[in-house]
Design a protein that fits this description.
Blueprint lengths: L11 E6 L2 E13 L4 E2 L3 H10 L6 E12 L2 E5 L14 H7 L9 E3 L5 H4 L15 E5 H9 L1 H9 L6 H9 L6 E4 L2 E4 L2 E5 L8 E7 L2 E5 L7 H4 L6 E2 L5 H18 L3 E2 L8 E7 L2 E6 L7
Parallel strand pairs: 5-6, 6-7, 7-8, 12-14
Antiparallel strand pairs: 1-2, 2-4, 3-13, 4-5, 9-10, 10-11, 11-12, 14-15, 15-16
């Protein structure tokens, strides 16, 4: 009797940008409540998901991206590790399927330090998963999570993200001697960091460019695309500065729609790339089809 599969093929998808190879690597997904969406009722947001034939409550994709450029290898974000849900933490097995050893990664770039993006940096014993990698993030991000105790007290008092500071510090600790903080500019061959604050103080996107081709990996500009693309005023409970997060989202939406910029997101449905176009008085997301050729 034929044994039926109980899982999908490895979560990998390659994009060639000139001389750079970008690989979307799935870390799995998280099941989450709709109550974390702000400026919208739970009934309305759930209805929007059902209208898009998506499960409600939400299933949120967790995407990381490998960048292979100039003989070097970078990883943008590290997923949730073993610290969240069993449906997440798939980065290491998918890297193995891509035949990329952890020690082959020489740079880890973080969009920000929320646990679904940075908890794959170190194991439960505090050892680095990427022993040869430099860890790079915006200087405001590191200051907020790893240095600014005033911010920790404020967030704890508001009962939002209470354990996040301890998680961020423990995950960053094994990289302390190989930490690179930036404000912007080129942070890896062909990769430019862009500051997109609001979701967190140092939240960043990364523009990957080779020749005439480019891809903007925009981090957490949206978490629930079916809701936040048509309703950019919808913020998340985990936004450090919700008003700024909304303003940044509107600014980035305008920029990518005007430029026709190819985009990738950590919470766009895998493989996580798309274009955003204006439609009526708002926007519409056009996810990429699967690419059969690299």
């Amino acid at each position: 009797m034929t044994t039926l599969p109980d899982c999908q093929v490895p979560g990998l998808h390659h994009y060639k940008l000139g001389d750079i190879l970008v690989t979307a690597v799935s870390d799995g997904f998280l099941r989450g409540s709709m109550t974390v969406l702000q400026n919208i009722t739970e009934a309305d947001s759930s209805a929007m998901l059902r209208a898009a034939f998506r499960p409600a409550p939400r299933h949120t994709s967790l995407n990381c991206f490998l960048i292979r450029s100039g003989g070097r290898t970078a990883l943008i974000d590290t997923g949730a590790g073993a610290h969240m849900q069993a449906s997440a933490g798939k980065l290491q097995q998918n890297l193995a399927a891509a035949e990329v050893a952890p020690e082959a990664i020489d740079t880890v770039l973080l969009t920000h330090m929320h646990p679904d993006h940075s908890n794959g940096l170190a194991d439960a014993k505090g050892s680095a998963f990427f022993p040869a990698a430099e860890l790079a993030m915006h200087e405001a991000e590191y200051a907020y999570w790893c240095e600014d105790t005033g911010a920790e007290a404020a967030v704890t008092a508001s009962n939002r993200g209470v354990p996040y500071f301890a998680m961020a510090r423990s995950q960053a600790a094994p990289y302390r001697d190989r930490l690179k903080l930036f404000r912007g500019g080129e942070v890896f061959p062909g990769v430019t960091a862009l500051h997109f604050p609001g979701h967190t103080p140092g939240h960043s996107g990364f523009l990957v460019t080779s020749g005439s081709e480019s891809l903007l990996i925009w981090g957490d500009i949206v978490h629930v695309p079916e809701v936040q693309v048509p309703r950019p005023e919808v913020t998340m409970q985990y936004d450090v500065d919700p008003a700024q997060a909304e303003a940044t989202r509107r600014r980035v939406f305008d920029m990518v729609a005007t430029d026709g910029q190819h985009i990738a997101g950590m919470h766009l449905h895998f493989p996580g790339t798309a274009h955003l176009a204006r439609e009526g008085g708002g926007y519409r997301l056009h996810p990429d089809a699967w690419r059969f050729e690299i």
